[in-house]
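Researcher: Structure prediction, please.
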Amino acid sequence: MLDSIHGLIEEYKTHQFILTGSSARKLRRGGVNLLAGRALLTHFHPFMAAELGIGFSLDTALRNGLIPLIVSANTPDKTLATYVAQYLKEEVKEEGLVRDIGAFARFLEAISFSHGSILNLSNIARECHVSRKMVENYLSILEDLLLGYKLPVFTRRARRAMTAQPKFYLFDAGVYYHLRPRGPLDSPAEIGGMALEGLVLQHLKAWCDYSDCQVNCYFWRSRGGAEVDFILYGEHHFHALEVKNAKQIHPKSLRSLKTFLIDYPEASAILLYRGTEKLVVDGIFCCPVDDFLLQLKPNHWP
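Model: Predicted structure follows.
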């Protein structure tokens, strides 16, 4: 098909084609015709809150995510369960990307515990009873299929020793919430906090891809333990964001942002929380997370 499209572009000059699909891994590794540089690579993300407007519900987004198929479904929870079962497992199996679908299913469950955390591939390998190399392969499959991504550490002009390992996030909060096992030993607040953090990140990733300026997303963590969830750095933008699944602002919630501002006074610092008031505390802008997400639009920073 791509050879035919290439020929039509050469013949008619003015024709444009929009090709959609999720098999980016096959395209990159199959040696197919990539249209001699005429193709523009565009990433589509789950809905942003601003696209839904008054139809956006933070609690619903945390539980079911913002994948268009799920948002428009009559029974979102059942549709999400089917999506996870059929696409994340069966589609991977049918494409021949893994031989042992049982091991891959265990990996999906194990990787859900790493959502929002620094990757420890050795621990995941032990939990899945597979080799570390196999876990690396499974992780690359998730990244190639755009189902998850690593978040690198921000080290620009670092003044202190920084951690080296990236963090991992699944691409949608609903997918994380569905994959993450829950039991008596699991804290709902912890699971909800990770879902909220992932929801904010998927919005930031979409904003970076959809905006005209070149901005990349990182996290910041010193070896001393100070950590800021997200750093946006690029042309005309330098922001540090901390996400808290709490309705009140506590002094300790601002500690890492203050530490970051000591090293990077040029940055703007934002605390996103589950409260209802917008206020400035010690020079840090504190904003309800749902308000922030609704105001976040391509080429517009809240």
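Model: Residues 126 and 289 are 36 Å apart (CA to CA).
Researcher: Thanks, that helps.
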